[in-house]
Amino acid sequence: MSKRLSIVAALAAALAPAAQAAYPERPITLIVPFAAGGPTDVVARIVGDNMSRTLGQQVVVENVTGAGGTTGTTRGAQANPDGCTITMGHMGTHGAAPAVYPNLKYDPLKDFVPIGLAAGTPILIVAKKNFPAKDLKEFVTYVKANSEKLNEAHAGVGSVSHTTCSLLNSILGIKPTRVPYQGTGPALNDLVGGQVDYMCDQIVNLTPQIQAGSIKAYGIATEKRSPALPDVPTTKEGGLAEFQVSAWNALFAPKGTPNEIVTKLNGALVKALDDEHTRKRLLDLGAEIADKEGRSPEALRKLVTSEIARWNKVLKTQTASAK
Prior knowledge:
By secondary structure, the chain is an alpha/beta fold. The chain has twelve helices and nine strands.
């Protein structure tokens, strides 16, 4: 009997690594809590395409929209922790949401296991093409003197455009009329048409209009200029170094996901971000890619913690007046 047990134990030990190595045994669902074609969706599809080849199973994007991305993120938090459903969260869903939604059905830190940072999309300050200021310094002076007469567009409370301009308005100490829209598209259309004065948004959404001269770009909120818009100065160059913000996108798994699965997913993500073709696709959009140290689960956890604190401070005083 003891000999039979030892054989069984030996077989179990031999098969255990193989069982772990089998992950993933089926396609992986990647929940994107925003509409198809938006910045987070585009980043998810580019990264997921490369990860599929590494993992040997297709990463299938599922767009689950609603409530500023919190509907899809809630679904991701409640998924089985088997590595077969993961979520592409971002600055809003895992940073700003706790301050914007008092009845949020998930905790960005407690209900998720961080996998890694995918890519950030820089934020720009833009205005209608006939806005009086010629550069960022003049823009700051003008809006401070005329904020009560100005209209600022955003894509709804909790959106990237809303949260980032909340930060800008807070830094400048101004209270313009905040005009909400059902998405970035309608807001940008009215900016192009001159119905509103300025807004803040992601480079991916704004580049064509800036290049066409349909709107004015006053500054990009990054340390360095973007290769996608090399003529647009940084906010630091324009004298507004305090306004540094990026709409980062990152992968998360539900809490309870085994460490070995998280490690494998992180490895596939890191490999994707090192791939020359994948990097080019992201950089051509104007996205920023973190260095190797910044792609670890630990680095992402620290980022989420700091972002929750940052946006809680900014948005608690801004949300009530924006609704």
